[in-house]
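Hey,

Quick one before I head out. I ran the complex with C2E overnight. Inputs first:
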Amino acid sequence: MMRLALCIGEEHDLRLTALAVLICLVGSAATGQLFQRVKSAAGAVRAGWLMLASVGIGTMVWSTHFVAMMGFRAKVPVTLDPGLTLLSLLVVIGLAVPGLIVAKKIARGAGLAGGAIIGAGIATMHYLGMSAYRVDGIVTWDWAYVSASVLLSIALTGAAFQLFGTNGRSARIAAPGMLALGVALLHFTGMAAMNIAVLDLGGNGLSNLTQVLLAVSTSVGALLVVGCAGVSALIDGQTQNEAYRRLRRMALHDGLTDLPNRMAFNEELNRRFAVKGGAPCMAVVMLDLSRFKAVNDTHGHQAGDQLLIALSARLTAMLRTGECVARLGGDEFAAVISFTERGELTSFLERLQAALDMPFAFERFTASIGANIGVALAVHDGFDANTLLGKADLAMYRAKSAHSDAPCFYDARMDDAVRSRRDLGNDLRDAVQNGAFELHYQVQASIPTGEITGYEALVRWRHPTLGLVSPATFIPLAEETGQIVALSIWILRQACFEAALWTNRHVVSVNLSPLHLADPRLVETVQTALIDTGLPPERLALELTESAIIHDRRYALGQLKALKALGISIALDDFGVGYSSIDVLRAFAFDRIKLDASFVAEIERDEQAVSILRSVAALGATLHMPVLAEGVEQPGQLAIVAREGCTAIQGYLIGKPSRSLADPDQVRRLMTLRPQAVDADWHVA
Ligand code: C2E
Ligand code: CA
Ligand code: CA
């Protein structure tokens, strides 16, 4: 140690030593930047940075060594072998290449190994440089010092590159210091290892002035090379960071409103859930704008965009600490708020509503919107981001169904029913795609003859876990979720296909949803179903309710006429409930009226029901429309509907809906079951 200190203090020109240390420090810092470029680049760019980094390291250590050498006062004439001096530079650059290739690898200890190779390169450079240093004297080496210098170079450079590879800020600062220390210790330990026995041979060496000039010009050159390389690396790193920041911002922000998007919102939620000991309460708020679609439809999409931007600015302006609003897409927004007292949440919701309620005035238009708001609370309603989002969504859905602008808080009792209906809607989508339905048939028979006249096709859904699901549940669901037309087409084609295989020639009646009647391709669908299955048109009847005709009457009647023109028959279903307007009967020549089952259920008890039944039957007779009574379960009901002029029945009395067709003899026998007493009891004048 003493010898090292003496070597630096007494045998070196301190100004040149300081210059060497400066080059070493600047070069080490530049090496750090260059090494980061090598690590982050790929392909040809990486090769370029590898070259530049190797030249940078080589130049840095070589010139440090050279300037320090020039500062060494050897007390004898000194000359330099230019060839060997140059070779020493090339060797260190050459060894830096494999060193960097190893050090940049991701494997554990790669930095250490690569750095060790570079450290060995630096040591080789030093001793080659020393052999180029010619003195008038006998040079002897202290091998212990030589070994120590080589080991120090390898160990410290290895450690420096290991640190360069880590992400910590302090490690990144320590690494260049470690490298500089390695380079400096190698040099001075190496110099301390050298003993010169002076032999003044009277030769001419380099003058002190020449040595100083050489050192200064080398320093300037080296600082320029190393500095430029380091600065390029720094600029490139900044540009890349900037590009990365911009990309990340784009990925996490909504392009239109600049609010955080769904991905950012999820990240934020997860982050808040992960914070231990964060705010004790957290609420997730979902909002869906109410009258936004109207703005889009009336004023165009540009106006819609303008409104979203203005609303987002309002929402952002009302935020306080702990609150965050995001746009999830379309007109759907979400917010998260962390709070300690319930009052903070109430205040947030009030501010939110005020922002939504205030009308928007633009140059071209004004608009008043509102929103349906759903709220879910952590940890009461859920322990993770997804659960809470789902529950806030369910609560919002309820607010929407209730047409309420007031926030709805998630309520398991109410919202779980909505959820199971949603789940069922999703299952239904799969079922429609896979045709997971079957048709059951319910027999219809003529009252005067007791003969079977046809069958009504009634669809059933075989659900994988729920078993057979009633059409009363899933038909309205299919109508709500827009799957009814696809389902209806399947039913129609399947009914035609199965009926075409029957050995009898009975009519098959298929129920038609009002939404399917509105489908412009309906007539074509029916026609192709008939052609494809070979079912004659006169064997197909479609049943539809008055509601199908009420809305767009002209269009509906046009569709019905076109259907009838195919040769099929049309029945008016569920008559007696709903509108029961005579107008509908006059507007279209139905082939049959079906009297609703709920109505038939009353006739044994309610005289008024019998009067209405009689009027409907009379109306049918006048309009030449046979009347079928639905839901006939009792012989007494059959007796009354027969007496009052109905022409046919359908009901559990003669057969329940079933996969198999009815036995005609049994139906005939059941049709004759009419207790005589009924006629006497209910003889209405
Ligand atoms: P709907 O068209 O009025 O069909 C008659 C319903 O009454 C059937 O119920 C049938 O099983 C039931 N029913 C028949 N006889 C009796 C009886 O004597 N007593 C009682 N209590 N009920 C009787 P289902 O099959 O559950 O169908 C319910 C409704 O679902 C149907 O009412 C119809 O509106 C709809 N639906 C059924 N199948 C289809 C279909 O294929 N397409 C369309 N669009 N709707 C269908
Ligand atoms: Ca029906
Ligand atoms: Ca019916």
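Residues 2-243 form one domain.

Talk tomorrow,
K.
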